[in-house]
Every structure is written in structure tokens, then in C-alpha cells.
């Protein structure tokens, strides 16, 4: 099968892992099940700007409820212009259509390009995708854009808009737990947050391959802009459900740090992306992260989790992936 010159050597890497599978217990049977498709809770954020106090409270309650019951929700009238989202998508597509060798060797976007999964030891740990994972502190560096000069201005504006939206949503979630401290907003700024540009090439060898393996996010919250292709699935009521795509809405999901901080009131939910046999998929994720030395404690007494720094949490994740092939996460930090 011919792979376009702009796509990474995913087939080569996946085939190599497949040849090793017979020697490992690494079956991927769970992806064979038919998935129910659901729409995430939809929240109109115009309610937060309403002069009607009851409408503000209703909107805030909807955000908190979805964060507790689903760990995911989608938002409209979010303050990020649809024109900016369109521009960002166009720039992202141009970037990923660059030759693979250019993406992999030319130091684009602070040398942040990755594909597949370098730590995978079998097919079920493999990501059929490529991505640029860029610290916000680096996106204004003109030298790292090479020939993609128009991407820089759009991405700077996009990151600023996402940062504002993420802090607004985090503030709501903090207030709904009757916590007045603005600490989360203070420790999560442009010095510690990230953007990730994702591309999931079509995968004609199988539709049972992960575009992104099952995981929870390790941040406070994530904001995702995806296209119309679909493929995102999340764990709901102990089963996988497919998320119906809505490219005019943004998806928000709770990360591990907010679950720990809220003492399990808000849920960091496992999710994954499935590869598509006919269509490629694009998405952009913004991650609201603190600095590595930030201490994550509970907003309530009798915390379920021990206090830990974000750096300690990330290190434990890396060690687990290295030793056992997957993330363990918050259960490592139970009291």
C-alpha cells in the first residue's frame, strides 16, 4: 500500500509491532465492539455573560453537572470566533501536508513533531497519528515556523483565546465547589500550558486501530476543536460510547488534576480516538496545565489523594509507561 510522502511511516512501525504480538499478551478485542453514538451535553456559554443572575447560575450548574456526571461537555457561544477556528484548521492542514522529512527533521514548532508511539511494545499501545505538541511559551518564536509564516499569527491568537476560555471555565468549576481561591488560574498560565495539533491519517489496513490509545488527560482541563470526521470515544457508565462530532462546538474535558483537586467531584474520564479507514481526521487540543513545581492538593478536608507536584505526577506517568506500557494515573497517589 502506498503511503503519501507527507504521512509518517505508521504502517512500517505498526507492522513491526504486529510481528512481535504473538510473543505478548496484547490483544485488542475491546475495539471490535459496536459503539453507541451519543451527543455530549451542550452548554451555551452566553449564559455566563447574561445580566440575569438566575441564567448565570443555571449555566454554571450545567457546567459543574456535566463535569461530575460525564467529565466531558461541549460549548457554543464560547467567545472563540468561528473564523479563527476556520483559519487555524486551514493552517494546521497545510502544516501536516508538508513532506514527512521536513516535519521530522527541520525543527518546526520548537522540534515538537511526534508520530506513532516510541514506547509502544505491541499494537494496542500504538497511536496511528502524528502531532505537534507545543508549549505556549514557544509559539511566538518566528524562527521555528520555517516557511509556514502565516501559521504563527493565527496560532498566537488561537492560544490566547483558548487560554481565556479555559480560565473562565476553571473559575466556574472552582466557584461551584464554594472555593473562593483563584489559585488554579494563577498557576496555569502561558508559561505552563500547551497546544497539540493532531492529524490522524486514514488507516486502510484496519478500522480497529487506535488513532490515540485509551487515556485520561493529566492536566486540569482540555479544550478540543475537532472536525466532522469523528472517532472520539469516551467511557460512560462502564462502556465505550462514540462522540457525535460537531465542528461548530468546542469539547471540554476534565483532567486528572481537577479530579484530584475536587476530591473526585469532577471526573477525569478515559477516552480514545479510533482510526478511520477512509478519511483523515484533524483536531487541536489546548491543555490547561500548572508549572511542574505546583502542588496539587484537595479543596476539601480528608483528601482522597496525597499532595503531589505536577512534576512528580508526570514523572510517575513516564515511569509507568516505561515499565508496564501504560499510564496508571491518580490511583498511584491515593491516601
What would you say this structure looks like, in words?
A hairpin with a 2-residue loop joins β9 (232-236) and β10 (239-243). α3 packs across α6. The model is unreliable at 27-32 (pLDDT under 50). The protein has a single domain (28-301), classed as B-lactam Antibiotic, Isopenicillin N Synthase, Chain (Jelly Rolls). It is globular, with a radius of gyration of 20 Å. It is an alpha+beta fold and 335 residues long. The N and C termini lie far apart (51 Å). It has nine helices and 15 strands. The protein has helices at residues 10-20, 53-69, 82-96, 100-105, 108-111, 149-175, 183-187, 256-261, 310-324; strands at 36-38, 42-44, 72-76, 113-115, 130-135, 194-200, 210-215, 221-226, 232-236, 239-243, 250-254, 271-274, 281-288, 295-296, 308-309. Keywords: Dioxygenase, Iron, Metal-binding, Oxidoreductase, Vitamin C. It catalyses: gibberellin A1 + 2-oxoglutarate + O2 = gibberellin A8 + succinate + CO2.
List the topology elements.
Layout lengths: L9 H11 L15 E3 L3 E3 L8 H17 L2 E5 L5 H15 L3 H6 L2 H4 L1 E3 L14 E6 L13 H27 L7 H5 L6 E7 L9 E6 L5 E6 L5 E5 L2 E5 L6 E5 L1 H6 L9 E4 L6 E8 L6 E2 L11 E2 H15 L11
Parallel strand pairs: 1-10, 2-3
Antiparallel strand pairs: 3-11, 4-5, 5-6, 6-13, 7-12, 8-11, 8-13, 9-10, 9-12, 14-15
Helix pairs in contact: 3-6
